[in-house]
What does this fold into?
Amino acid sequence: MNIVNFTPVSALTGGLLIGLSVALFFILNGRMIGISGIASNFLVSKNNRVDNFLFLVGLILGPLIYSYTTGKEINISISSSLILLIIGGVLVGFGTKLSNGCTSGHGISGISRFSLRSIIATITFMIVGILTVLITGIL
Amino acid sequence: MNKIVSLLCGIIFGIGLVISEMINPEKVLGFLNIFRDWDPSLAFVMIGALIVSTPIFHFFKNKNKPVFSSNFSIPTNKEIDKKLIIGAVFFGSGWGLIGLCPGPAITSIALLNMSSAIFVVSMFIGFYLGSKVN
It folds into this structure.
């Protein structure tokens, strides 16, 4: 194993902001953030639909406000083929709906609550993610 | 007020995903690539988030009510069942395949990237299919 591209300061800074968002949403609105829950409930449920919609709009405004205020360009790189993007997207949507949470809902909000359910889900999707990268790297 | 809070929390969360670079699938795949060239950065995203959210949650959970809402809504499901594990396995495999999870995927719509848009549409189809099974 080699350590590469390590950027602990920006990762920690971004993480603190994500934690701040989770904390504020809880103190002010009384809900624990989970993006898969917010997005999927926006799609299938009338409860809190406007709040959920506005949160998702906020997510999309985030990078625009960041670029506008800092003048920095945001670059992402996705090299996956069309068919893999579709398969990956459906797996992520279906899986997070089935287990009621994703990296934020289980990984951050759930672990904050010391929920055993969330800790087990997080360990499971981390291990499977690592194995998937290992296997696709070999193929 | 809680409408404004929702929008504001979305913005803060989105900026956090940008600064931490969690929005970039290459960075996520680097984090999951522990057996070869490992980029441990994203562990620090989780640490950063948890050191804020954990104490705040435990301090406020026993208060009467949130500031702008009538009651706290905290998940009560404690069951560790097949659905939890199978769902996490599906999610982990899709995450490891592309490097996108729901938050970064939706946030990346701002960048008008065709690949991430295809991923997001597919993810919403997955949400719909999952809600039918649930």
